[in-house]
Design brief:
The protein is built from three helices and ten strands; from the N terminus they run E-E-H-E-E-E-E-H-E-E-H-E-E. By secondary structure, it is an alpha+beta fold. It folds into two domains: about 90 residues, Ubiquitin-like (UB roll) (Roll), CATH 3.10.20; about 70 residues, Roll (Ubiquitin-like (UB roll)), CATH 3.10.20. The relative contact order is 0.16.
Length: about 200
């Protein structure tokens, strides 16, 4: 199953009047982990945007993304259908989110209907909202891992100390612990929110 990560970047953009503006942009990345999402985003954007920082990476609950080459506008769509609970046998309403490229909401609706025409269960498209996502970066089959990269293990960097190595290991462990925390889905945004057990 595809896992989509919503990544937000910030950088300083020089406008036509030579004024600098702080810009924030969102990208959707197909990746296997938070680290993989960051790596793939840097690889995709580094040639076009020189100095940027990733300010946020969050897992989303999009079940599918439909790309059309004729437009660059993305719409977040919510579909709803009835499903039977395996344990109780009762019907319950289930909501799922999808992202689709379209020039306007009407076209997004029509395209989503066409994409889901093979579904055997009846469904409703309950919401279609313009998404701030600028670009979707899908996984490409056979994609190579960072060829000709200048990345090296921290031990091989001149001047790196044992403390630097231990710090890098600790940061990696902390990131793994954060990923393993229980997650809650925000029904409004469709993002998975990490639950803080301290509350």
């Amino acid at each position: 199953m595809t896992t989509w990560f919503l990544c937000t970047i910030q950088y300083i953009k020089i406008l036509e009047n030579d004024k600098a503006k702080n810009v924030s942009e969102q990208y959707l990345v197909d990746a296997v982990s938070f680290t993989d999402a960051e790596t793939r985003l840097y690889r995709s954007l580094s040639s076009a945007i020189k100095d940027f920082i990733i300010t946020r990476v969050s897992k989303t609950n999009y079940i599918d993304v439909f790309n059309y080459e004729d437009c660059e506008t993305w719409y977040k769509c919510k579909i709803s259908y009835l499903d039977v609970d395996e344990h109780s046998g009762k019907e319950k309403r289930v909501s799922k989110y999808m992202l689709i490229a379209a020039p306007n909401p009407r076209e997004a609706y029509d395209r989503l209907q066409a994409q889901l025409s093979t579904w055997v269960i009846p469904f409703e498209i309950t919401d279609i909202n313009l998404s701030p996502i600028l670009e979707v970066i899908p996984y490409v089959s056979g994609e190579e891992l960072l060829e000709n990269t200048n990345l090296k293990p921290i031990k091989q960097i001149a001047g790196a100390t044992e403390a630097d190595y231990e710090k890098a290991e600790l940061e990696a462990e902390i990131e793994e612990e954060i990923v393993e925390e229980e997650e809650i889905i925000d029904d409004e945004t469709g993002e998975i929110i990490e639950d803080s057990t301290e509350a």
